């Protein structure tokens, strides 16, 4: 009771003294808290700039709630597009900088609604579901940043996937108003349906300055190699139809054509093939007898019989993909999803993601003029190869075609690999399925190059009747440590090769093949005797090369030269007996996008035994024709694929003053 009484007597006296002493403190504290709450509320409702750091997501802001931007008639219009742009001229890699993860950062502009001065939108569709899916996938990826100052790449929220829905001039003006546009530098646009009637250009017609274009219908004329990215035309059926994976193997039909808008000349040629080959070829068209309410996009017909699409594609080994008004066709995606090997007939078409994907493993590309030979060409492909291609086709779809997310992230990865090449994905990572059936790897048809892999290389020597020079070449080549086999192509039909006992004795198998016609292209034929991936093609008068020089550099693309050479180049070479080496360089440069590598400093080639009678190069018209053939080949390819190079590959210690025994290739450059 005493304690309680003491507390009661002191308590009331203390409270007034505390209020007096700390009144200023509490008032100040309360004022700070109140001001903080007011400031927070004002920030929430105050209009933000276009470079807001809020995460990009359609869920947080409806398109209809996006800010309305009116475009003055006098708004600037970007340049049409610089065809000379490359990563080192039109892209600022210094924006990307160094980061430990070697990953570019991508900023997506916030949504805005652009209209002209009369209030008419720049697009009649607004933001499509496909573009929304694309932007959402990027915003959820490791590439995305909401900090505009850290961004390496900028993606507008302006949907240009389908040019048909755009007002070209107004869309270009909207792009130029983006605060970071800077003539399109480091900006990426996605477009799948370029051009419009009647010309249907193969690239987006919207003027876009220096912006990169991920396009779905590039030709060799509009594609800026190493800058633009060729992407697939997305098929809506990918999301609507689930096709279970079908095991590779023979199918009910050998060839199937399912496109409905085929040019009448192609349709007539396909009908002729159908007449010649019967049930092996199924030629489908749009249906005219469907019941009311049935979806024509999901059906195909042949003589009144209705087939479900795309399910019917799984019943064929090969599926035709012909060019339409546009080069890029959504049918390619449908065919891949079905595990059917696409037979692509679209001259000059840049295949999707061809910068990294090896389409030889998943498709057959045939020139349009060879449509009449399609059945014969496909029949020549071994069954084992067809099965591997079916498997690869399905995997390409799953990895790179199946969704807008897959398409968008693959595009960004390709650009990322250009900017951080030392951390780029390898050929195997891009092209090998995660789970490989290793029992099939023994097949040469699974490999990037058609001939099977074996140690070393095969030397193919083309000869006519210079026996003495031929024997010297054979003797020198036989000293190369990596030589696995030597194949002599005897191109003289009027004279037999020397007897077996007269040939040089060498430590590897030597085989003589007699040709039926005297053609220069015989040197690049993929003979059955070739069991190595690497091949050295050489003439019988190249006697000055040393074994070290041959060991240091070799590799040619024989199969591609024989079966994939565009147009009539191979026939032209055979008819003129000239330029086969230039044709091979055109082919390899066009496929790889790279320049040839000069190996060692040799500058002169001498053949003391050669005379004006037996030397093709000594003919007065020889050099004139070589100039003509460059122009001819460039016109066939539709571009000049040859690259300028200022690089020479020399072995380590080549010119250093060290003992010869310390050098791996001591005998290089000597005459």
From TrEMBL:
Q: Which SUPFAM superfamilies did the record assign? A: Nucleotide-diphospho-sugar transferases (SSF53448)
The GO cellular component terms are: endoplasmic reticulum membrane
Transmembrane portions of the chain: 24-46
Q: Where in the cell is it found?
A: Endoplasmic reticulum membrane
Biological process annotations from GO: heparan sulfate proteoglycan biosynthetic process
Topology in the lipid bilayer is annotated as: Single-pass type II membrane protein
Domain annotation Exostosin GT47: ranges: 101-381
A single GO molecular-function term is:
glycosyltransferase activity
Taking every annotated instance into account, which residue ranges of this chain make up the domain Glycosyl transferase? 555-654
Protein name per its UniProtKB record: Exostosin glycosyltransferase 2
Keywords annotated in UniProt: Coiled coil, Disulfide bond, Endoplasmic reticulum, Membrane, Transferase, Transmembrane, Transmembrane helix
Which domain of life does this protein belong to? Eukaryota
Primary gene name: ext2
Q: Which Pfam families match?
A: Exostosin_GT47, Glyco_transf_64
């Amino acid at each position: 009771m005493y304690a309680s009484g003491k507390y009661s007597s002191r308590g009331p006296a203390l409270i007034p003294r505390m209020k007096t002493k700390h009144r200023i403190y509490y008032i100040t504290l309360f004022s700070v808290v109140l001001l903080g709450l007011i400031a927070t509320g004002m920030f929430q409702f105050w209009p933000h700039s276009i470079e807001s750091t809020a995460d990009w997501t359609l869920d947080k802001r409806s398109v209809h709630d996006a800010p309305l931007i009116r475009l003055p008639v006098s708004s600037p219009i970007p340049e049409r597009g610089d065809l000379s742009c490359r990563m080192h001229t039109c892209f600022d890699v210094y924006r990307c900088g160094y980061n430990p993860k070697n990953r570019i950062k991508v900023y997506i502009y916030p949504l805005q609604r652009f209209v002209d001065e009369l209030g008419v939108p720049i697009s009649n569709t607004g933001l499509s579901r496909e573009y929304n899916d694309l932007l959402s996938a990027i915003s959820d990826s490791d590439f995305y940043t909401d900090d505009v100052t850290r961004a390496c790449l900028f993606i507008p929220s302006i949907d240009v996937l389908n040019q048909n829905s755009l007002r070209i001039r107004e869309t270009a003006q909207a792009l130029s108003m983006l605060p970071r546009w800077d003539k399109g530098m480091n900006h990426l646009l996605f477009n799948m349906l370029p051009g419009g009637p009647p010309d249907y250009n193969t690239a987006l017609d919207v003027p876009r300055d220096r912006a990169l274009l991920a396009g779905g219908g590039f030709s060799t004329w509009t594609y800026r190699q190493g800058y633009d990215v060729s992407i697939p035309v997305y098929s809506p059926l990918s999301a609507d139809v689930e096709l279970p994976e079908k095991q590779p193997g023979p199918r009910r039909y050998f060839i199937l054509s399912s496109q409905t808008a085929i040019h009448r000349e192609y349709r007539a040629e396909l009908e002729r093939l159908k007449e010649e080959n019967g049930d092996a070829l199924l030629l489908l068209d749009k249906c005219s007898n469907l019941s009311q309410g049935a979806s024509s996009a999901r059906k195909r017909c042949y003589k009144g019989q209705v087939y479900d699409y795309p399910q019917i594609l799984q019943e064929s080994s090969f599926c035709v993909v012909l060019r339409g008004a546009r080069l890029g066709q959504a049918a390619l995606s449908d065919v891949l999803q079905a595990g059917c090997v696409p037979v692509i007939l679209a001259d000059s078409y840049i295949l999707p993601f061809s910068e990294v994907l090896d389409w030889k493993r998943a498709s057959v590309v045939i020139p349009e003029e060879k449509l009449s030979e399609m059945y014969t060409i496909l029949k020549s492909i071994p069954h084992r190869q067809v099965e591997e291609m079916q498997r690869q086709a399905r995997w390409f779809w799953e990895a790179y075609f199946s969704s807008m997310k897959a398409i968008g992230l693959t595009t960004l990865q390709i650009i990322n690999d250009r900017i951080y090449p030392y951390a780029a994905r390898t050929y195997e990572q891009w092209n090998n399925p995660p789970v490989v059936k290793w029992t099939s790897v023994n097949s040469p048809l699974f490999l990037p190059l058609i001939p099977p892999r074996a140690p070393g290389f095969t030397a193919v020597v083309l000869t006519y009747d210079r026996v003495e020079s031929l024997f010297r070449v054979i003797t020198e080549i036989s000293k190369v440590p990596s030589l696995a086999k030597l194949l002599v192509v005897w191109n003289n039909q009027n004279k037999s090769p020397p007897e077996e006992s007269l040939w040089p004795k060498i430590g590897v198998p030597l085989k003589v093949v007699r040709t039926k016609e005297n053609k220069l292209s015989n040197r690049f034929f993929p003979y059955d005797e070739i069991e190595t991936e690497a091949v050295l093609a050489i003439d019988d008068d190249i006697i000055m090369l040393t074994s070290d020089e041959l060991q240091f550099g070799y590799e040619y693309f024989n199969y591609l030269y024989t079966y994939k050479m565009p147009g009539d180049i191979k026939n032209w070479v055979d008819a003129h007996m000239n330029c086969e080496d230039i044709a091979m360089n055109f082919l390899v440069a066009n496929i790889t996008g790279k320049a040839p590598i000069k190996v060692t400093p040799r500058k002169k080639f001498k053949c003391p035994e050669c005379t004006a009678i037996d030397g093709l190069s000594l003919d007065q018209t020889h050099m004139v024709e070589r100039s003509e053939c460059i122009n001819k080949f460039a016109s066939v390819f539709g571009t000049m694929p040859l690259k300028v190079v200022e690089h020479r590959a020399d072995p380590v210690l080549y010119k250093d003053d060290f003992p010869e025994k310390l050098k791996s290739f001591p005998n290089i450059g000597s005459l």
